[in-house]
Specification:
Length: 345
C-alpha cells in the first residue's frame, strides 16, 4: 500500500509539472464557473402578446385573458401596436381591422422573434379569427401531462450547461492521465520503477488510483463552484462522478498506451473528447438526436446527472444507465490494463 501511495503522489506532482495540463485543468474549472454565474438564473415563462382590435375586442378579451402564461397588452391603434413589437415590449402583435367591411387580421413579429414564438402567435391569431367570424371551434380540449408537470418550474439554461461543464472538465483528464502513461513508457520511467520492488499490478493500481483521485477532486471542486452539491444530490453525484472517473481512466489507459508522442496523444484525445461530448447536446436539443447516441457511454452518465441535479430524480431511477456505464468501464479498463501490461513486459 505504501508503494502504491508513493507512486500516486509522484504521479500527481508529475502531471501538474506539465504547465499545459495544469493551466487547462484549472482554467476550465474557474472559467466555466464564471460563465455559469454570469448566465441568467431565471427562465422567462411569460409570453407577451400585443393586441389591437378595431371592433369586437370584448368578444375575445375574456377568452385571451384565460390563457396561461400569456401577458396581454392592448394597443389603442395599429401604429402603437407596431411600436410595441419594434421596441420588443411584446413578442408578437395581433391586429384586427375592418377593410371595406371585411375583417383583416395581421400578425406582427420582429426580426428577433424566435420561430416557436411566431408559431404560438399564429395559433392564437387563428383561434381569435374563428371567434370573431362567429364560428368558434366547437371542440373541447383536455390537457394531460405525461411525466412531471414543469409548468412554472422550467430549468434555466445555465443549469443545463453546468452538466456540460462537468463533462468537459472530466474530458480534460483524458490528456492528463494519458500523457502521464505515454511519457513514462517513452522515457522508460515505468521500467525504472519496475526495477524496484514495485510489481506490475501495484504500478497499474497506482495509475488507476491517480486517475480516480484527480477526476473526483476536480469534479467535486467544479460541483461546488457550479452550485451542484446539496444534501440530496451529494451522494448520487459522487457515485455518478466515480463511474465517470472510471470511464476517463479506462480510456486514458488505452490512449496513453497507443500514443507514441504528445502530438499523437492530442490527436487521439481530441477524437475521444468529441465523441465523449456529443451526448451533452441532447440536453440543449432534446429529442433532436439519433438512437445510436445511446451507445456512447457518456450518454449514460449525462442523462442521470441531468435528471438528479436538475429534476430531482433519485439514483434508483437510473439503474439501467449505471449498469451499462459500469459494464463498459470494466471492459475498456481490462482492455487498457492488458495493453499496458503488454507494453511493460
Amino acid at each position: 500500500m505504501n508503494r502504491i501511495l508513493s507512486i500516486v503522489k509522484k504521479d500527481v506532482i508529475q502531471i501538474f509539472r506539465n504547465r499545459f495540463i495544469a493551466v487547462i485543468t484549472f482554467l476550465a474549472i474557474f472559467v466555466y464557473a464564471i460563465i455559469f454565474h454570469v448566465m441568467p438564473s431565471k427562465v422567462e415563462e411569460m409570453y407577451s402578446m400585443g393586441f389591437y382590435f378595431e371592433k369586437g375586442r370584448e368578444a375575445v378579451e375574456e377568452q385571451i385573458s384565460e390563457e396561461e402564461g400569456v401577458e396581454v397588452v392592448w394597443a389603442d391603434d395599429e401604429n402603437e401596436l407596431k411600436k410595441l413589437v419594434e421596441d420588443e415590449d411584446v413578442q408578437v402583435g395581433l391586429s384586427f381591422t375592418l377593410l371595406e367591411g371585411k375583417p383583416k387580421i395581421v400578425l406582427y413579429t420582429s426580426t428577433q422573434t424566435p420561430e416557436e414564438i411566431r408559431e404560438a402567435g399564429d395559433v392564437i391569431a387563428r383561434e381569435a379569427a374563428y371567434s370573431l367570424s362567429g364560428y368558434p371551434l366547437n371542440v373541447e380540449f383536455d390537457e394531460v401531462v405525461i411525466g412531471p408537470d414543469l409548468l412554472g418550474e422550467q430549468i434555466p439554461f445555465r443549469n443545463k450547461m453546468r452538466i456540460l461543464f462537468v463533462v468537459m472538465i472530466l474530458s480534460v483528464e483524458f490528456f492528463a492521465l494519458g500523457n502521464l502513461i505515454s511519457e513514462e513508457i517513452r522515457k522508460k520511467t515505468a521500467d525504472a520503477i519496475l526495477v524496484t520492488p514495485v510489481s506490475i499490478p501495484e504500478f497499474m493500481t497506482a495509475k488507476v488510483a491517480t486517475g480516480i483521485f484527480l477526476t473526483l477532486s476536480e469534479g467535486i471542486l467544479a460541483a461546488f463552484l457550479l452550485n451542484i452539491i446539496s444534501f440530496d444530490t451529494v451522494l448520487p453525484f459522487v457515485v455518478l462522478l466515480f463511474l465517470g472517473a472510471l470511464l476517463v481512466v479506462a480510456v486514458s489507459f488505452v490512449l496513453g498506451t497507443i500514443s507514441r508522442s504528445f502530438l499523437g496523444l492530442t490527436a487521439y484525445g481530441t477524437l475521444f473528447m468529441i465523441v465523449f461530448m456529443i451526448p451533452t447536446f441532447t440536453l440543449i436539443f432534446p429529442g433532436g438526436y439519433s438512437f445510436w447516441i445511446k451507445a456512447v457511454p457518456s450518454y449514460h452518465l449525462i442523462i442521470p446527472l441531468d435528471g438528479i441535479i436538475n429534476y430531482g430524480y433519485v439514483l434508483s431511477d437510473y439503474l439501467p444507465e449505471m449498469a451499462y456505464l459500469g459494464s463498459f468501464n470494466i471492459v475498456v479498463l481490462l482492455l487498457g490494463l492488458y495493453v499496458l501490461r503488454r507494453r511493460l513486459t
